[in-house]
Amino acid sequence: MTDLDEALRAGAGGMLADQAAVELLIRAGGFVHRGAPWIRESGAAAFVDPEALLRESGGLGGGARRIAAVAAALLGGERVDLVDAASGLDRASLDLVLAAIAHAGGSHESAEPVLVGGELVGFSTPASLHPWPGEQGVTAPAPM
After folding, report:
1. Helix (H, G, I), strand (E, B) or coil at 11
2. Over 70: is that where the pLDDT of 61 sits?
3. What is the pLDDT of residue 136?
4. 11, 18, 25, 135: which one has the fewest Cβ atoms less than 10 Å from its Cβ?
């Protein structure tokens, strides 16, 4: 984890889709580095410019271009055809994209009611539908 990784995470703030895009780019490797034309630094935060990411990723390999397209779409850039994006990814990259989509959808933040004898006693937080590779989903009951 680098200072730039942390700055990008700070820049994504509480926006789930932005968080997902940033995490996808960090974990995919090769996208996050000083001097990348799609990264804009501002104090302790950094941001990804989705238009620059798409424009500058044209010379990358097919899988990397697909990762860039998904990340740009999550950041509010040009929409991406998920069939085209998914069909051209290797297994590890597809795993990252699935985790990004689950994160953007908030599957890690949902709360499920816990009933005992038909009575609501609290809520549980189920694991993400598709956790980031290398992370275990955590289910933690939340008292009422």
Report:
1. helix
2. yes
3. 65
4. 135
Token pair belonging to 68: 């860039």
Query: Tokens for 18?
Result: 């932005």
- Partners of residue 123 on adjacent β-strands: 113, 142
Burial-class residue 1 by CB neighbours within 10 Å (0-12, 13-18, 19+). exposed
Dihedral sign of CA atoms 102, 22, 71, 61 in order: negative
Q: State the DSSP H helix or E strand holding residue 42, giving kind and residue range, or none if neither.
A: strand 39-42
pTM confidence score: 0.85
d(CA 118, CA 41): 52
Give me the mean pLDDT over the 1-24 stretch.
96
Distance between CA 68 and CA 31 in Å, rounded? Answer: 8
Summarize pLDDT for 77-133 with one digit per residue, the tens.
Answer: 999 999 999 999 999 999 999 999 999 999 887 778 888 999 899 888 878 889 999
How far is the C-alpha of 101 from the C-alpha of 129, rounded, in Å? Answer: 10
Kindly write down the DSSP assignment for every residue of 7-66, as one continuous string.
Answer: HHHHHHTT-HHHHHHHHHHHHHSSS--TT-TTEEEETTEEEE-HHHHHHHGGGS-HHHHH
Chain centroid offset of residue 48 CA: 13
* CA angle 62–2–54, rounded 5-degree value: 30
